[in-house]
Amino acid sequence: MSNSEEAINHHDEIKQLIMLRLRKKDIVTAEMIREQVTFFVKSFHGEGIAKDINEEALFRELSSLTSVWQPDPSILRDGKHKNWLPERKATIQWDFWKRYRQYLEEEKMRPTTVTTQLDKVTDMILGDIGNPEQVGEEWWLVKSSQEKQQIIPAWFVRLLMPVTN
Q1: b (16+ CB within 10 A) / e for 52-77
Q2: Domain residue spans of the chain
Q3: pLDDT tens digits, 126-154
Q4: Could you tell me which of 143, 131, 122 has the C-alpha nearest to residue 82?
Q5: Which end of the chain is less enclosed by CB atoms within 10 A, N or C?
Q6: How far apart, in whole angstroms, are the C-alpha atoms of residue 24 and residue 59?
């Protein structure tokens, strides 16, 4: 492995370690990023590796990955809708979501703010499309503002739902 390839590997390794630490924080500041970069670069240097890591480039890259703002989503719905998900959310095993969120944060380096917002939007959508365990036809009929019925197929709703115990 060439020196430049080795430097890239060390850069990426330090970046991943720092992102794992920072994703546990609600708010990430430039000072926190700078402290983590300094700590890990010095640690790697102490081991005699990663001598040619560009701290400033690493800091800028991490800053761009963590400084993310996303607005809250907006959804149009009528006043008659009852969101069923909050009552059942704790009883559902979200195994796929937990693994996917971990993949997005650890492998794809998505900031926690992004995955948290994705989680909120997904919950809003699931709560709006209807409870798949509700008896009767109301759970799969949605009335639009023009009072036309739109059918959401049962297989689609069940596809979105995780397996429950």
Answers
A1: ebeeeebbebbeebbeeeeeeeeeee
A2: 3-66, 85-160
A3: 888 777 777 655 545 555 444 444 445 45
A4: 131
A5: C
A6: 18
For residue 160, with 0-12 CB atoms within 10 Å meaning exposed, 13-18 middle and 19 or more buried, which class applies?
Answer: exposed
For the segment 54-94, what is each residue's pLDDT rounded down to a tens digit?
A: 899 999 899 888 766 667 777 777 777 778 888 888 888 88
End-to-end, the C-alpha distance of the chain in Å comes to 49
Q: Is the pLDDT of residue 19 over 70?
A: yes
Tell me if 104 sits within 8 A of 115, measured CB to CB: yes
**pTM of the shown model:** 0.52
The pLDDT tens digits of the residues spanning 101-121 come to 989 888 887 877 788 888 988
One-letter amino acid of 19: M
Residue 130 and residue 139 in contact, taking contact as beta carbons nearer than 8 Å: yes
> H-helix or E-strand containing 141?
strand 141-143
Strand 149-151 to 141-143 pairing: antiparallel
